[in-house]
Amino acid sequence: MFSRLHGSLLPGWIGCEPQGLQSSLALVQRSPEGKPAVRWLASADWSRPAETLRQLRRGRALHRHRRVALLQNSQYQCVSLDAPTDLPRDEWAAAVRWQLKDSVDFPVDSAAVDLLTVPEGTSYRTQPQLIVVAAPADSVRPLMQQGAAAKTPWDAIDIAETALRNLSALCEPEGRAQALLHCQPHHSTLVVTHQGELLFGRHMDLTLAQLNHPDEATRTPAYDHAVLQLQRTLDGFERSFGQVTLARLLIAPMPGLAAFIEHLSPLLYVAVEPLPLDDILDLSALPPGGTEPGQLNLHVCAIGAALRDD
């Protein structure tokens, strides 16, 4: 996604996911040998971001690592477009910027725009496809100003879809596509990946409070709503990307995960399994309780965003 470069730092990236008045952070270090290592997870107040970042600079050595921040789901849009293959590759961003005018509800001339190339041979369309990520300046500018004010400028700005893509890519079945669902307090995000790249992403109105409600009379309708949304979404994916086979749907850690999977499994045409974080990440540095489903759920996107190469 949107990024900048600078001098040498300590290994690893710190991912930061603001969500309203709270934020989640993770330090992940990649190694040529072995699994990526999650060194620490943290939650922080986000009511005064610059002050929080200054505290993290002192307490977590934020300035000693590369830093990536995620935009909140209301701060950007993803649009699928045909690639303008009649132009040189370095002119695509400028070309698609003006195609966005009818697809987004903010000025495109000052928007931040990045392009994700959809792997060829996955879609029925003959024209190469792009996922265009666009964020209004009013969303990106405050985040950049907050980082600069704390003397911890962001090295990259990311989104949930690509953060989840990074996690999915660690455990994709060879030659087949894979879906990953992450349920959060205010919404859920579904991505489908293939060959380590993002094919498709969608935000859903499924919340943890609904899916993990203690009252079965409230929880069951939420489960049924989840089934309906997933059936429609996966069917739509298959119609658009029929050149690849969807191997399974993974569910990111969450409270009540086993019951949710038990409900989904007989009603979807693909296998439904938990995201095997223990198998794809080294979590040994986390303290007791740090690998509880509720804790991991809060930090899934921060971890995924920090899965970047140094």
Structure, explained:
The chain is an alpha/beta fold. The chain has three domains: 144 residues, Nucleotidyltransferase, domain 5 (2-Layer Sandwich), CATH 3.30.420.40; 58 residues, Dna Ligase, domain 1 (2-Layer Sandwich); 102 residues, ATPase, nucleotide binding domain (Nucleotidyltransferase, domain 5, 2-Layer Sandwich), CATH 3.30.420. It is built from nine helices and 14 strands. A hairpin with a 2-residue loop joins strand 11 and strand 12. Helix 4 crosses helix 9. The longest helix is centred in the C-terminal third of the chain and has 25 residues.
Descriptive labels:
single chain, alpha/beta, Dna Ligase, domain 1, Nucleotidyltransferase, domain 5, 6-stranded mixed β-sheet, 5-stranded mixed β-sheet, 9 helices, 14 strands
Secondary structure layout:
Blueprint: E1 2-3, E2 13-19, E3 22-29, E4 37-45, H1 49-60, E5 66-70, E6 77-82, H2 92-99, E7 112-117, E8 129-135, H3 137-149, E9 156-158, H4 160-169, E10 177-183, E11 188-194, E12 197-204, H5 208-211, H6 216-240, E13 246-251, H7 257-264, E14 271-274, H8 277-280, H9 293-305
Parallel strand pairs: 2-5, 5-9, 10-13, 13-14
Antiparallel strand pairs: 1-9, 2-3, 3-4, 6-8, 7-8, 10-11, 11-12
